[in-house]
Design goal:
The chain is mainly alpha-helical and about 250 residues long. The protein contains 9 helices and no strands.
Length: about 250
């Protein structure tokens, strides 16, 4: 269990680190976009090679995994739609934040909605992070690194949105600390539950998380990285995928 706690702290701690960077440093949006693109590439590799492929090898149930995969994507899209329409619109959007700051009447963001949005993104990831500890190997390390890289820009952009909404630095830090606690608990849950679950249930949960993560990448990270970083972020995404693939195979 100690390994799961450490893994959860590493992957979830990226949100808090990103928050501190967003509070005290003026980070260039192109840099945030580059981190998003690289993290997206690593995550695509991790969910396709390490999660879906491993889940199929365990269960040999392609139809069940397919249903769980689509269910994960649907839950994320519906949850994301609800959160976006209740004040969490700019929790990851570098382009949206820039336009909001240029506007004479910036659109307010809700700290609670940003928090819920972060949990919507982070809980499936953290659950699999905890499960990856039970299997060990390079695949688990690659997935933890991928989640770290995806959480870093989320903490940065979410913090800027909260500052624009008028939240105090203290409240912002407490909110992200609460997020870190939930992600660590999710990692522990993944370690305890998936470590003893049947192969079919294990594979279904990994497929559900994969669907949610892929929907998040297509909905937010990749479009925003391309919109603000330009066409060359495609090469950064490819580099992230290739690095993750090589690390999982070497």
């Amino acid at each position: 269990m100690f390994e799961a706690i450490v893994a959860g702290l590493i992957s979830g701690g990226a949100i808090l680190l990103g928050a501190l960077l967003g509070l005290y440093l003026k980070c260039r949006y192109k840099m945030i976009a580059a981190v998003m693109a690289f993290g997206a590439g690593v995550l695509i590799s991790a969910l396709s090679i390490d999660l879906m492929n491993e889940g199929f090898e365990q269960s040999q149930e392609p139809y069940g995994m397919g249903f769980a995969f689509l269910a994960g994507a649907l839950v994320f899209v519906l949850g994301d739609y609800f959160i976006d329409h209740n004040g969490g619109k700019f929790r990851k959007s570098t382009h949206g934040m820039e336009q909001n700051m240029k506007s004479e009447k910036p659109e307010a963001s809700s700290g609670g909605a940003i928090f819920l949005g972060t949990l919507l993104d982070g809980i499936p990831e953290s659950f699999v992070v905890g499960a990856s500890v039970t299997t060990g190997g390079a695949g688990g390390l690659v997935f933890i690194a991928a989640v770290f890289l995806s959480n870093l820009p989320e903490g940065m952009s979410g913090t800027v949105s909260m500052k624009m909404a008028g939240m105090s630095t203290r409240n912002i830090i407490f909110l992200w600390l609460g997020t870190l606690v939930v992600t660590v608990l999710s990692a522990i849950g993944g370690y305890l539950f998936l470590g003893s679950a049947s192969p079919v249930i294990n594979a279904s949960i990994m497929a559900f998380a994969s669907g949610a993560i892929l929907a998040m990448l297509c909905d937010t990270m990749i479009p925003e990285a391309f919109k603000f970083g330009g066409r060359f972020v495609a090469l950064i995404t490819v580099a992230g995928f290739l690095l993750a693939f090589m690390l999982s195979k070497v």
